[in-house]
What does this fold into?
Amino acid sequence: MKSVKVFAPATVANLGCGFDVMGLAIDVPGDELMLSFNKDKKLIIKKITGDGGKLSYNAKKNTVTVAIQSMLDEMKMSQGFDVVLKKKMPLGSGLGSSAASSVAGVFAANVLLGKPFSKKELVPFAMAGEKVASGSAHADNVAPCLLGGIILIRSYEPLDIIQLPVPAKLYLVVVHPHVEVLTKDARAVLKKNIPLNTAVRQWGNTAAFTAGLFSNDMDLIGRSVEDHVAEPARAALIPHFHEVKNAALESGAIACSISGSGPSIFALCNGKNASGNISKAMKKVFTKNGIQSEVYISSVNKNGVRII
Ligand code: HSE
It folds into this structure.
């Protein structure tokens, strides 16, 4: 195999109660990447489309090549690759756009090199790419993008990644308003310390959310998606956030919060049938306020990145 084409899906990180420790993959949108061996012993970005000219062709600055380089460094290898990246999701959207590109790069390189690593072992390399893009090496986008499903990161040092069960009825509506929020900026508005009573509420919900997934209890899942840490600080970065959230809950969503660092907003739905009305109600708020938005309706993507 001289080249491979892969698809890496969008992800919803945090899931309300699990700041930096939880995330899930959805079916669409996602990035496509073609990786080919070259003889130059260099990582060369040949072409990027769909990014509006915003992404760097410098291999030391692009998330794809930084992620691949960290894998080659671990292998003490100087193999060259040509990269063609098709961004099929917006940057700064809260949909794990940079994570999808990092994951696509390391997954494709791993395939071409004969799979020296498992998908789980690729997580730290993809995190290195995520760090260049967002200033922080969190795994709550890259891990679900690689592995699929709903992921809990119990610990970063050492990395301990746990795959959680996916209730069959769980559907997501994700609405992306056309405003850009950079993860770096959305992290800068967070307080570095939180009061003990806030922490107590947050970890109560995180644990209960996990219990809800194991017991297939949609009510418990819904009432556990409460964020006392990031959402209160970040809501102001998203125009009409509270109105959109109310619209989602009033039209039947079991929960609603910010997707990753925003501005996308996700709603959890009990079954696919509920998702139509919920998505319409959420989009309507943006439309009536003159903000364009994209709507994605998806079940949880259980496979993650794949060859296409
Ligand atoms: N957990 C990260 C954050 C996800 O909320 O900053 C960024 O997509």
Q: What stands out?
A: The radius of gyration is 19 Å.
